[in-house]
């Protein structure tokens, strides 16, 4: 077994196709096939089912994929540690819950100073992003602080403090009217959804209708059109409030105050790219937020 075989296995698993993996790796298809077979022989197990429609991971392949990701990530970290710590290069995979409105301050400052780093940004909900950080799929993530993030294997640094508000498009509605409307919420694992659920539970309120929407943009548009109500950070709707498109209702502090944290793995060494990103967070939160 060698690193290249693991890289090929990881790429084929992600692509779900030997042909697509070969194109991505700039290899001939037969080379990819032979390297996969060689890896299977060295592990004494079958990693992929071959069938007419292509390939799919076996149970053993699914079980081994996280280990391949971890090994490849550690090798990349080892390479990065020996690089120029003041002028980092390489990849940095970051993610964020969708509603971190002030995130561009951090990203723009970082990319201005360290333009040789290949930074990628994706989105998701807190529970999902935490697992991706733990499984070496992400270098770090901005998530909502909660019991989910209190993990001894993670560092978490506080970044932003925000207030959540219930929003509707009608200024004349009472709280009793509000809770009669359909609730538009984010995916399971979202910290905002968890806070609202806690309030509903404590008030013994059972929503009449709940709709799960995928993005903040869709949620806000749906609220403005009168489809329902939602629970979001005030910073995300401040401009809509000024335009009288959205009206806010505040819940007690216990349910409305949240903290966004940046999480990353506990380890003795971090890549220069990640170290500089952490430094940038500290600079921006201290002087600009």
Automatic annotation (TrEMBL):
* Pfam families for this protein: HTH_1, LysR_substrate
UniProt superkingdom: Bacteria
Residue intervals of the HTH lysR-type domain: 1-58
Q: Which UniProt keywords apply?
A: DNA-binding, Transcription, Transcription regulation
Q: Which InterPro entries does the entry link to?
A: LysR_HTH_N, LysR_subst-bd, WH-like_DNA-bd_sf, WH_DNA-bd_sf
Q: What does the record give under GO molecular function?
A: DNA-binding transcription factor activity; transcription cis-regulatory region binding
Record-stated family: Belongs to the LysR transcriptional regulatory family.
> What protein name is recorded for this chain?
LysR family transcriptional regulator
| Protein source organism | Candidatus Pseudogracilibacillus intestinigallinarum
């Amino acid at each position: 077994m060698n690193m290249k075989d693991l890289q090929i296995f990881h790429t084929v698993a992600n692509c779900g196709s030997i042909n697509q993996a070969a194109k991505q790796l700039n290899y001939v298809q037969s080379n990819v096939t032979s390297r996969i077979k060689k890896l299977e022989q060295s592990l004494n197990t079958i990693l992929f089912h071959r069938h007419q429609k292509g390939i799919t991971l076996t149970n053993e392949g699914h079980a081994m994929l996280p280990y391949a990701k971890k090994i490849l990530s550690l090798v990349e970290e080892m390479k990065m540690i020996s690089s120029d710590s003041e002028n980092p290069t390489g990849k940095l995979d970051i993610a964020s819950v969708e509603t971190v409105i002030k995130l561009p301050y951090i990203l723009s400052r970082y990319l201005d100073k360290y333009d040789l780093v290949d930074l990628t940004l994706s989105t998701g909900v807190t529970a999902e992003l935490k697992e991706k950080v733990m499984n070496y799929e992400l270098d770090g993530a901005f998530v909502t602080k909660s019991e989910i993030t209190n993990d001894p294997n993670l560092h978490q640094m506080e970044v932003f403090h925000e207030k959540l508000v219930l929003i509707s498009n009608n200024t004349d509605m009472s709280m009793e009217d509000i809770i009669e409307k359909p609730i538009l919420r984010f995916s399971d694992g979202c910290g905002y959804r968890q806070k609202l659920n806690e309030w509903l539970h404590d008030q013994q309120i059972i929503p009449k209708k709940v709709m799960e929407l995928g993005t903040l943009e869709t949620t806000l548009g749906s609220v403005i059109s009168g489809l329902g109500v939602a629970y979001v950070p005030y910073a995300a709707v401040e401009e809509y409030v000024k335009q009288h498109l959205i009206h806010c209702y505040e819940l007690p502090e216990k349910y409305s105050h949240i903290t966004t944290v940046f999480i990353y793995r506990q380890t003795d060494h971090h890549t220069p790219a990640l170290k500089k990103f952490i430094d940038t967070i500290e600079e921006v939160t201290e002087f600009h937020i």
